[in-house]
Amino acid sequence: MAQRRSLAVPYGAPVLAVSFLACVATALELSVNNHAADFTLSTGLSPAISLSCLVHNSSQAEELLWYRGDGQVDLKDGNKVNISNICISPVNESDNGVTFTCRLARDKSVQVSVILDVQFPPQLSGEETLHVEEEKDVTLTCNSKSNPQAQSTWLKDNQSLTLQQSHHEVYQTSEVCQLSIRKVQKSDNGTYTCMVESRLGNGTRDFHLIVEDKKPVFPKEAVIAAVVVVTITVLFGIVARKDKFFKVW
Protein backbone atom coordinates (compact mmCIF):
# COMPACT_ATOMS: atom_id res chain seq x y z
CA MET A 1 0.00 0.00 0.00
CA ALA A 2 1.35 3.42 -1.00
CA GLN A 3 2.43 5.67 1.81
CA ARG A 4 1.75 9.37 1.88
CA ARG A 5 4.72 11.64 2.11
CA SER A 6 4.53 15.11 3.60
CA LEU A 7 6.96 17.93 2.78
CA ALA A 8 9.04 18.68 5.84
CA VAL A 9 9.09 22.38 6.75
CA PRO A 10 11.83 23.71 9.03
CA TYR A 11 10.47 24.78 12.34
CA GLY A 12 11.99 28.27 12.24
CA ALA A 13 10.84 29.22 8.70
CA PRO A 14 7.36 30.58 9.52
CA VAL A 15 8.77 32.67 12.33
CA LEU A 16 11.43 34.19 10.06
CA ALA A 17 8.86 34.96 7.37
CA VAL A 18 6.56 36.66 9.82
CA SER A 19 9.46 38.66 11.22
CA PHE A 20 10.52 39.78 7.72
CA LEU A 21 6.99 40.90 6.85
CA ALA A 22 6.72 42.80 10.11
CA CYS A 23 10.00 44.57 9.37
CA VAL A 24 8.83 45.60 5.88
CA ALA A 25 5.49 46.78 7.18
CA THR A 26 7.09 48.97 9.84
CA ALA A 27 9.93 50.50 7.79
CA LEU A 28 11.36 53.68 9.28
CA GLU A 29 10.19 56.85 7.52
CA LEU A 30 9.86 60.60 8.01
CA SER A 31 7.17 63.14 7.38
CA VAL A 32 7.23 66.94 7.20
CA ASN A 33 3.96 68.70 7.97
CA ASN A 34 2.21 65.33 7.44
CA HIS A 35 3.82 64.80 4.01
CA ALA A 36 5.82 61.57 3.68
CA ALA A 37 7.21 62.56 0.25
CA ASP A 38 8.82 65.70 -1.20
CA PHE A 39 6.33 68.52 -1.73
CA THR A 40 5.95 72.23 -2.48
CA LEU A 41 4.60 74.59 0.15
CA SER A 42 2.87 77.71 -1.20
CA THR A 43 2.81 80.73 1.06
CA GLY A 44 2.73 84.50 0.93
CA LEU A 45 4.92 87.03 2.68
CA SER A 46 4.26 86.34 6.34
CA PRO A 47 5.80 86.85 9.79
CA ALA A 48 6.65 83.15 10.11
CA ILE A 49 5.92 79.58 9.00
CA SER A 50 6.81 76.35 10.79
CA LEU A 51 8.06 73.04 9.44
CA SER A 52 7.68 69.95 11.63
CA CYS A 53 9.61 66.73 10.95
CA LEU A 54 8.44 63.49 12.59
CA VAL A 55 9.94 59.98 12.72
CA HIS A 56 7.52 57.10 12.10
CA ASN A 57 7.84 53.41 13.06
CA SER A 58 10.83 54.01 15.30
CA SER A 59 11.71 51.63 18.15
CA GLN A 60 14.52 53.83 19.42
CA ALA A 61 15.54 57.45 19.69
CA GLU A 62 16.41 58.82 16.25
CA GLU A 63 18.36 62.03 15.70
CA LEU A 64 17.11 64.38 12.98
CA LEU A 65 18.96 66.93 10.85
CA TRP A 66 17.63 69.96 8.98
CA TYR A 67 19.17 71.59 5.89
CA ARG A 68 18.44 74.84 4.11
CA GLY A 69 19.72 74.17 0.61
CA ASP A 70 23.17 72.62 1.18
CA GLY A 71 23.74 74.27 4.54
CA GLN A 72 22.89 72.53 7.81
CA VAL A 73 20.55 74.30 10.22
CA ASP A 74 21.65 74.61 13.87
CA LEU A 75 19.18 72.87 16.19
CA LYS A 76 18.89 73.01 19.96
CA ASP A 77 19.50 69.77 21.88
CA GLY A 78 15.84 69.33 22.78
CA ASN A 79 14.77 69.71 19.16
CA LYS A 80 16.59 66.80 17.49
CA VAL A 81 15.14 63.47 18.66
CA ASN A 82 12.19 61.81 16.86
CA ILE A 83 10.53 65.18 16.23
CA SER A 84 12.11 68.45 15.15
CA ASN A 85 10.64 71.85 14.32
CA ILE A 86 12.13 74.84 12.53
CA CYS A 87 10.66 78.30 12.08
CA ILE A 88 11.27 80.55 9.07
CA SER A 89 10.81 84.12 10.23
CA PRO A 90 10.04 86.32 8.48
CA VAL A 91 9.15 84.77 5.14
CA ASN A 92 10.37 87.08 2.36
CA GLU A 93 11.19 87.09 -1.35
CA SER A 94 14.62 85.54 -0.84
CA ASP A 95 12.99 82.38 0.52
CA ASN A 96 11.20 81.71 -2.76
CA GLY A 97 12.46 78.48 -4.34
CA VAL A 98 14.55 77.50 -1.32
CA THR A 99 14.55 73.80 -0.37
CA PHE A 100 14.37 72.69 3.27
CA THR A 101 15.23 69.03 3.95
CA CYS A 102 14.77 66.89 7.05
CA ARG A 103 17.11 63.86 7.21
CA LEU A 104 17.71 60.93 9.53
CA ALA A 105 21.15 61.37 11.11
CA ARG A 106 22.21 57.70 10.94
CA ASP A 107 20.85 57.19 7.41
CA LYS A 108 20.77 60.39 5.36
CA SER A 109 18.99 58.62 2.49
CA VAL A 110 15.85 58.74 4.65
CA GLN A 111 14.66 62.29 4.06
CA VAL A 112 11.78 64.55 3.06
CA SER A 113 12.23 67.89 1.26
CA VAL A 114 9.92 70.86 0.96
CA ILE A 115 10.33 73.65 -1.62
CA LEU A 116 8.98 77.06 -0.63
CA ASP A 117 6.79 78.79 -3.20
CA VAL A 118 6.66 82.32 -1.78
CA GLN A 119 4.18 84.44 -3.70
CA PHE A 120 4.39 88.24 -3.61
CA PRO A 121 3.23 91.25 -5.67
CA PRO A 122 5.55 93.11 -8.07
CA GLN A 123 8.47 95.01 -6.60
CA LEU A 124 10.08 97.50 -8.98
CA SER A 125 13.41 99.31 -9.00
CA GLY A 126 15.80 100.90 -11.50
CA GLU A 127 17.65 104.10 -12.38
CA GLU A 128 15.06 106.87 -12.55
CA THR A 129 16.84 109.53 -14.64
CA LEU A 130 18.98 108.82 -17.69
CA HIS A 131 20.93 111.31 -19.80
CA VAL A 132 21.82 110.24 -23.32
CA GLU A 133 23.38 112.01 -26.25
CA GLU A 134 21.37 112.29 -29.43
CA GLU A 135 21.87 109.41 -31.89
CA LYS A 136 23.28 107.15 -29.14
CA ASP A 137 21.59 103.93 -27.92
CA VAL A 138 19.99 103.69 -24.47
CA THR A 139 18.34 100.95 -22.39
CA LEU A 140 15.78 101.54 -19.64
CA THR A 141 16.00 98.67 -17.14
CA CYS A 142 13.01 98.01 -14.89
CA ASN A 143 13.89 95.43 -12.24
CA SER A 144 10.62 93.61 -11.63
CA LYS A 145 10.53 90.82 -9.06
CA SER A 146 7.23 89.02 -8.53
CA ASN A 147 5.78 85.56 -7.99
CA PRO A 148 3.87 84.53 -10.00
CA GLN A 149 5.53 86.30 -12.93
CA ALA A 150 3.80 89.52 -13.88
CA GLN A 151 3.08 91.04 -17.28
CA SER A 152 4.86 94.29 -18.17
CA THR A 153 4.00 97.13 -20.55
CA TRP A 154 5.65 100.48 -21.29
CA LEU A 155 4.04 103.93 -21.43
CA LYS A 156 5.47 107.22 -22.68
CA ASP A 157 4.17 110.41 -21.10
CA ASN A 158 1.19 108.46 -19.70
CA GLN A 159 0.25 107.16 -23.14
CA SER A 160 0.64 103.66 -24.53
CA LEU A 161 4.06 103.43 -26.21
CA THR A 162 3.89 102.55 -29.89
CA LEU A 163 6.86 100.32 -30.58
CA GLN A 164 8.68 101.15 -33.79
CA GLN A 165 10.55 98.40 -35.56
CA SER A 166 14.33 98.87 -35.57
CA HIS A 167 13.93 101.74 -33.08
CA HIS A 168 12.41 100.06 -29.99
CA GLU A 169 13.05 96.64 -28.52
CA VAL A 170 11.47 95.09 -25.38
CA TYR A 171 13.13 92.28 -23.42
CA GLN A 172 11.46 90.60 -20.42
CA THR A 173 12.36 87.84 -17.96
CA SER A 174 10.95 86.84 -14.57
CA GLU A 175 13.04 89.56 -12.88
CA VAL A 176 13.63 92.33 -15.42
CA CYS A 177 11.88 94.26 -18.17
CA GLN A 178 14.03 96.35 -20.52
CA LEU A 179 13.18 98.92 -23.15
CA SER A 180 16.00 99.62 -25.61
CA ILE A 181 15.92 102.65 -27.92
CA ARG A 182 18.35 102.78 -30.82
CA LYS A 183 19.79 106.10 -32.05
CA VAL A 184 17.65 108.29 -29.81
CA GLN A 185 16.19 111.51 -31.19
CA LYS A 186 14.86 114.62 -29.51
CA SER A 187 11.37 113.19 -29.98
CA ASP A 188 12.31 110.33 -27.62
CA ASN A 189 12.71 112.79 -24.76
CA GLY A 190 10.12 112.24 -22.00
CA THR A 191 8.91 110.09 -19.11
CA TYR A 192 8.68 106.35 -19.65
CA THR A 193 6.61 104.24 -17.25
CA CYS A 194 7.16 100.54 -16.62
CA MET A 195 3.74 99.14 -15.63
CA VAL A 196 3.66 95.64 -14.14
CA GLU A 197 0.47 93.70 -13.44
CA SER A 198 -0.10 90.40 -11.61
CA ARG A 199 -3.04 88.77 -9.84
CA LEU A 200 -1.47 89.77 -6.50
CA GLY A 201 -1.13 93.45 -7.35
CA ASN A 202 0.23 96.06 -9.73
CA GLY A 203 3.25 98.34 -9.74
CA THR A 204 4.70 101.23 -11.76
CA ARG A 205 8.11 102.86 -12.09
CA ASP A 206 8.93 106.10 -13.96
CA PHE A 207 12.09 106.65 -15.97
CA HIS A 208 12.95 110.20 -17.12
CA LEU A 209 14.89 110.14 -20.39
CA ILE A 210 16.73 113.37 -21.18
CA VAL A 211 18.11 113.55 -24.72
CA GLU A 212 21.03 115.97 -24.94
CA ASP A 213 22.48 117.70 -27.99
CA LYS A 214 25.01 115.78 -29.95
CA LYS A 215 28.49 116.86 -28.98
CA PRO A 216 30.83 117.92 -31.81
CA VAL A 217 33.38 115.29 -32.61
CA PHE A 218 36.85 116.51 -31.70
CA PRO A 219 39.24 115.73 -34.60
CA LYS A 220 41.87 114.20 -32.34
CA GLU A 221 43.74 112.38 -35.09
CA ALA A 222 43.99 115.51 -37.23
CA VAL A 223 45.30 117.59 -34.32
CA ILE A 224 47.93 114.99 -33.47
CA ALA A 225 49.05 114.84 -37.10
CA ALA A 226 49.32 118.64 -37.25
CA VAL A 227 51.38 118.77 -34.05
CA VAL A 228 53.75 116.15 -35.43
CA VAL A 229 54.16 118.04 -38.70
CA VAL A 230 54.81 121.33 -36.92
CA THR A 231 57.31 119.72 -34.55
CA ILE A 232 59.24 118.09 -37.40
CA THR A 233 59.24 121.35 -39.38
CA VAL A 234 60.64 123.27 -36.41
CA LEU A 235 63.32 120.65 -35.84
CA PHE A 236 64.39 120.73 -39.49
CA GLY A 237 64.50 124.55 -39.36
CA ILE A 238 66.70 124.46 -36.29
CA VAL A 239 69.05 121.93 -37.88
CA ALA A 240 69.25 123.94 -41.11
CA ARG A 241 70.20 127.15 -39.26
CA LYS A 242 72.38 125.64 -36.53
CA ASP A 243 75.49 127.48 -37.74
CA LYS A 244 73.89 130.88 -37.20
CA PHE A 245 72.72 129.81 -33.71
CA PHE A 246 76.24 128.76 -32.77
CA LYS A 247 77.70 132.10 -33.96
CA VAL A 248 75.19 133.99 -31.85
CA TRP A 249 76.10 132.00 -28.77
From TrEMBL:
<keyword id="KW-1015">Disulfide bond</keyword>
<keyword id="KW-0393">Immunoglobulin domain</keyword>
<dbReference type="InterPro" id="IPR007110">
    <property type="entry name" value="Ig-like_dom"/>
</dbReference>
<feature type="signal peptide">
    <location>
        <begin position="1"/>
        <end position="27"/>
    </location>
</feature>
<dbReference type="InterPro" id="IPR051275">
    <property type="entry name" value="Cell_adhesion_signaling"/>
</dbReference>
<dbReference type="GO" id="GO:0005911">
    <property type="term" value="C:cell-cell junction"/>
</dbReference>
<keyword id="KW-0472">Membrane</keyword>
<protein>
    <submittedName>
        <fullName>TMIG1 protein</fullName>
    </submittedName>
</protein>
<keyword id="KW-0812">Transmembrane</keyword>
<keyword id="KW-1133">Transmembrane helix</keyword>
<keyword id="KW-0732">Signal</keyword>
<keyword id="KW-0325">Glycoprotein</keyword>
<dbReference type="InterPro" id="IPR003598">
    <property type="entry name" value="Ig_sub2"/>
</dbReference>
<dbReference type="Pfam" id="PF00047">
    <property type="entry name" value="ig"/>
</dbReference>
<feature type="transmembrane region" description="Helical">
    <location>
        <begin position="222"/>
        <end position="240"/>
    </location>
</feature>
<feature type="domain" description="Ig-like">
    <location>
        <begin position="14"/>
        <end position="113"/>
    </location>
</feature>
<feature type="domain" description="Ig-like">
    <location>
        <begin position="122"/>
        <end position="212"/>
    </location>
</feature>
<dbReference type="GO" id="GO:0005886">
    <property type="term" value="C:plasma membrane"/>
</dbReference>
<dbReference type="InterPro" id="IPR003599">
    <property type="entry name" value="Ig_sub"/>
</dbReference>
<dbReference type="InterPro" id="IPR013151">
    <property type="entry name" value="Immunoglobulin_dom"/>
</dbReference>
<dbReference type="InterPro" id="IPR013783">
    <property type="entry name" value="Ig-like_fold"/>
</dbReference>
<dbReference type="InterPro" id="IPR036179">
    <property type="entry name" value="Ig-like_dom_sf"/>
</dbReference>
<dbReference type="GO" id="GO:0050839">
    <property type="term" value="F:cell adhesion molecule binding"/>
</dbReference>
<dbReference type="GO" id="GO:0098609">
    <property type="term" value="P:cell-cell adhesion"/>
</dbReference>
